[in-house]
Amino acid sequence: MGHIIREYFPALTHRNYKLFWSGQIISLIGTWMQNAALSWLVYSMTRDGFLSGFMTAVQFTPLFAFSLFAGLIIERFPKRRILIFTQSMLLLIAFIFYILMYFNAITYPVILVLLFFVGTIQALDNPTRQAFVVELVEGKEHLLNAIALNSAAFNSARLIGPAVAGKVMADYGVRWCFLLNAVSFLAVLIGLLMMRMKDVPSKEELKDPKKEIKEGLKYIKTNPKLLYTVVSLVIIPTFCMNFNVLVPIYTKDYLLLKEKAYGILLSSLGFGALVGAIFIAAKGNKQRAVYFQIIGALGLSIFLIILGLIKSYKLSIIILILLGLFMIFFNTTSNSILQFNSPDDMRGRIMSVYSLVFGGLTPVGSIYAGTLAKYLGANNVFIISGVIGFIGFLILYTRRGKLIK
C-alpha cells in the first residue's frame, strides 16, 4: 500500500497535506449536502428558475468583488491562520441556517443575506486554499498530484453529499443537511490545528495595493500559458458548469422526478469527476496538463449538447458521469497550469484571479442559466451551453503551441 501511495499519490506522503486532505473530504461532504439542500429548497419555495439562479449569483458576487484584494491578504498573512478563521465562519453560518429552519424563520430574502456572507468568506477562503497547496507539499514536484487529489476529495464529496442530502431531505427534513454541514467543518479545523509548520507569509509587507494588483494582472497578460488559461476559464466555467442551477429544474420539470432522483443525478456528476480526478492524480504530469485541459473542454461541450437532447433518466446518469469526468480534466489541469507558472511571491494574486474568473463570474453564469431555463427549459440551456463551451475549446486548441512550450 505504501508503495502505491508513493508511486501514484506522492502528495499523501507529506504529513501536513494528508491532514488537510483528510479533513477536506469530511467537510466537503457537508458542503455538498448543504448546496444540494439549498438548491432544492429554493426551487421548491419559489418554483422560479430565475430566483434559483439569482440565489447562486448573490453567493458568488463577493468573489467577483473581493477576489483580487484577497490575493494581497493571502500574501501578507499566514495561510493556515486565514483558513482557521474562514472555516470557523462557514461553520457558524451553516449552524445559523439550521437554527432558522428549526424555528421556521427561513425566507428567500434571509437565504440571500446569509449566502452573501458565505460568498464574502469564500472570496478569501477559496484562493487561500489554492495557494496553500504548494506549502503543504513543500514545493512543485508533487503539486499536480496534490491538486488532483484535492479534486478527488471535492468530487468524492460531490458524489456522496447530494445522494445523502436527497435521503436526509426525504426522510428527516431539509434542515438536517445544514446541521450536518456545520459539524463537518470540525474535521478540517482539527487538521489545520494539528499541522506542524511555520506560519510565515510570502511577503513581509503590503506597499501599494492597486500597484500590486496591476503587477499581477500584467504578469498574466505577458505569459501566454496564464493568459489563455484565464480566458478559457472565463468562458467554460461561467457558461458550462451551472449544474446546481439547472439539475433541479431539469429533474423536476423535464424528467418529472423527485428528491432522490435529483440527488442521484448530482452524485453521478460527482462520480465522473472523482474518476477523472483519480486518473489525473495517477497519470497526469506537467507535460500532459495542456492535453488534458483541451480534451476536457471538448468533452464537456459535446456531452452538454447530448444531455439537452435526451429525455431518459438512466441515460442522463451516464451523460452526467461523462460530464463530471471531462469537467475535472479541464478544471484540475487549468489550476495546475496557473500554479506551475506562478512565482512564489505572486501566487496569491494569480490564484485570486483564478478564483475571480472561476467563481467570481458564477453570478453571470447563474443568472444566464436560471433566466434561460425559465423561458426555454433546462434541456435547451444545456444545448446552448455546449455550443458556447466549444468556443472555449477552440481558443485552447488553436493556441496549443504556445501553451505546450
TrEMBL record:
Location(s) in or outside the cell: Cell membrane
Organism: Thermobrachium celere DSM 8682
InterPro entries reported for this sequence: MFS_dom, MFS_trans_sf, TM_effector
Keyword Zinc recorded: no
Residue intervals passing through the bilayer: 20-43, 49-70, 106-124, 173-194, 226-250, 262-282, 289-310, 316-338, 350-369, 375-397
This protein's UniProt keywords: Cell membrane, Membrane, Transmembrane, Transmembrane helix, Transport
Record bears the keyword Iron: no
Protein's name in the database: Permease
Start and end residues of each Major facilitator superfamily (MFS) profile domain: 1-404
